[in-house]
Amino acid sequence: MTNFKDTWIAYIQNLQNSICAAIEAEDGVALFKEDEWQRPEGGGGKTRVIANGNVFEKGGVNTSVVYGEVTDPMRTQLGISGDNWFACGLSIVLHPSNPFVPTIHCNYRMFELYNKNGDVIDRWFGGGTDLTPYYLFEDDAVHFHKTYKAVCDKFDTALYPEFKNNCDEYFVNSHRGKERRGIGGIFYDYCRPGKDRDIEFWFGLGSGCGNALIDSYLPIVARRKSLPYTADQKFWQEIRRGRYVEFNLVHDRGTLFGLKTNGRTESILMSLPPTARFEYEYKPVVGSEEDKLWQACLHVRDWAK
Amino acid sequence: MTNFKDTWIAYIQNLQNSICAAIEAEDGVALFKEDEWQRPEGGGGKTRVIANGNVFEKGGVNTSVVYGEVTDPMRTQLGISGDNWFACGLSIVLHPSNPFVPTIHCNYRMFELYNKNGDVIDRWFGGGTDLTPYYLFEDDAVHFHKTYKAVCDKFDTALYPEFKNNCDEYFVNSHRGKERRGIGGIFYDYCRPGKDRDIEFWFGLGSGCGNALIDSYLPIVARRKSLPYTADQKFWQEIRRGRYVEFNLVHDRGTLFGLKTNGRTESILMSLPPTARFEYEYKPVVGSEEDKLWQACLHVRDWAK
Fold first, then answer.
1. Phi/psi at B2 (5° precision)
2. From CA A212, how far away is CA A144, in angstroms rounded?
């Protein structure tokens, strides 16, 4: 694939457009506002946020195309070698107001390293999509996971089980035992093109998963967004949103790397929910609908079987 | 001072009792609930929480007396030597419901290290109290800082300027430039008894500052707790509470050390506010009361001059 970098950038930016259009259509009221930003050291991005919509209380669909010299902190803290780097990715978080509609997060990215002559000396792909419901609808969980399994299976049936397991292992609030922030999805990182799985393979997989976001998520939104809910159910959503905050600020590698390396704070923290609650020793009533969700966060299940 | 450890433990536990009594009296409705917990590796603590009171929406007044063997993570991550360690401290966070009443945080602690024979080979003190208002009342800020300056000045007039500066440097959301979580107070750490400042000096200072909490804070509570406030003012409080969450989860050394070393999560995270908001690029109107508070968090002032 010639001029691969430009192909990836074009794909990511087109995907940002099509996803924003689909979300606006589903919301019916709110529109995205765009902040285009420049990074002094090289590159920039487009942060698109939606707020106080009919469906979406807060969300962001962001792309960035950034590059620069490999710095000493990158060498020591990330183990990165080479002289120059490039990264381009899409990052999405959507927090609906209705507690029966899950929060979704996804991120698809490509990273390249160059030597002094500008030759590519390393390149890897990463990505994933995960779902954070506040109430457990098993058919939603099955639909979500089966959508990504179907995409992965087209490339290699070994991928989905591995990527699902990565996701289950990654999104853990380890300070709360094995409690996860949601019911998982897929996650992969440091995937380097090789003999068997070449650059077309990883581009195809990343774009296939990225394209699947709309099909994996919007049908769930459509069938839950008009369900009536109580103040108690909103309260529970805000408790779980608190756990989302805990994961993103204490454990998420991307968030912490961004915040500690002078990333654009407002774009990074658009992932935080609009509201959150933190209660001492809050536990749902055993056997309640809230407890069913909590148990699904504590015990991994095979949703796509 | 013979049997110093027991003296410090008795002081900390008495202070917990007297502060809880004063807070309950000021609240007038809510009472503390105590969870006494044991640490499997040695020691334990008393977590006392207050919630949904007339004044205090959420708060904790915690003590712990913990000890154990020096582990490899302590050696590598904390640079601690020796064979056994001991720590005893008091930790307080109070989040009032009324946005005109500030949040307060304090922590006073003593740490000892022993060799194989049980001899004390190192000992240090740490502590501090800081104030996080949501609206700036200059007389409150002056009263708060002058109270701690008066305590410190009794020991050495060099202390308050140093400790205030430590505090201003520590409670910074560095991912937001120089924005602090509040208007500071005092902070000191790794204070080892020496020739000039012996163990009685540091005990006296720690207990003097600990005792000053009631005088520094409750008069402010008393004069602000009945002020009427609007939904917009509560909204602003929750935005600032979001910054409190960001500081505690991203930057606070004690919180992160506790969460990553299997500390008691519910006792550590009692510091988080009951509710919080995270809005994209929220900025108060220039010249508004909200902006005045924000400016006081951005620009350090000498409140006790």
1. -80, 150
2. 10
**Contact A249/B at CB under 8 A:** yes
Residue A251: active-site member:
no
A 56-75 near B (Cβ less than 8 A): 58, 60
CA distance readout (Å), B21 to B32, B50, B179? 9, 12, 34
CA A62 to chain centre: 11
Q: What is the pLDDT along chain B (305 residues), one digit of tens a residue?
A: 567 899 999 999 999 999 999 999 999 999 999 999 999 889 999 999 999 999 999 999 999 999 999 988 788 877 888 999 999 999 999 999 999 999 999 999 999 999 999 999 999 999 999 999 999 999 999 999 999 999 999 999 999 999 999 999 999 999 999 999 999 999 999 999 998 899 999 999 999 999 999 999 999 999 999 999 999 999 999 999 999 999 999 999 889 888 877 789 999 999 999 999 999 999 999 999 999 999 999 999 999 98
Per the CB < 8 Å rule, is B245 touching A250?
A: no
Residue-wise over B38-55: b if at least 16 C-beta within 10 A, else e? ebeeebebbbbbbbebeb
| Residues within 8 A of B (CB atoms), A 180-199 only | none
Is residue A88 a contact partner of residue A64, using CB atoms and an 8 Å limit?
Answer: yes
Q: Are strands B33-38 and B43-51 parallel, antiparallel or unpaired?
A: antiparallel
Shortest distance, CA B269 to any CA of chain A (angstroms): 8
Beta-bridge partner residues of A127: A108, A188
Q: Which of B246, B270, B274 sits opposite A277 (nearest CB)?
A: B274
Contacts for A155-161: CB closer than 8 Å, 24+ residues apart = A155/A201, A155/A204, A155/A205, A155/A208, A156/A197, A159/A188, A159/A205, A160/A186, A160/A304
Copy the structure tokens of residue A211. Answer: 């394209």
Picking from A242, A259, A273, the nearest residue to B250 by CB comes out as A259
Q: Which residue of A has its CA nearest to B246?
A: A249
Q: Is A157 on the interface with B (CB under 8 A)?
A: no
Per the rule left: phi > 0, alpha: psi between -120 and 50, beta: everything else, B42 is: left
The answer to whether the Cβ–Cβ distance between B277 and A275 falls below 8 Å is yes
CB-based contact (8 Å) between B292 and chain A? no
Annotation: CATH topology of B4-298: oxygen-dependent coproporphyrinogen oxidase (3.40.1500)
CA A115 and chain centroid, separation? 30
Q: Give me the catalytic one of B105, B145, B175, B299.
A: B105
Of B51, B249, B281, the CB nearest to A246: B249
This prediction's pTM: 0.95
Structure tokens at B275: 């509710």
Biggest alpha carbon–alpha carbon distance for chain A: 63
Among B272, B269, B268, B273, which residue's Cα sits nearest to residue B89?
B268
Domain regions of chain B by residue span:
4-298
Contact of B238 with A275, CB cutoff 8 Å: yes
Closest by Cβ to A249, choosing from B58, B250, B270: B250
Sheet holding A185-191, edge to edge: A33-38, A43-51, A56-69, A84-96, A103-114, A120-132, A185-191
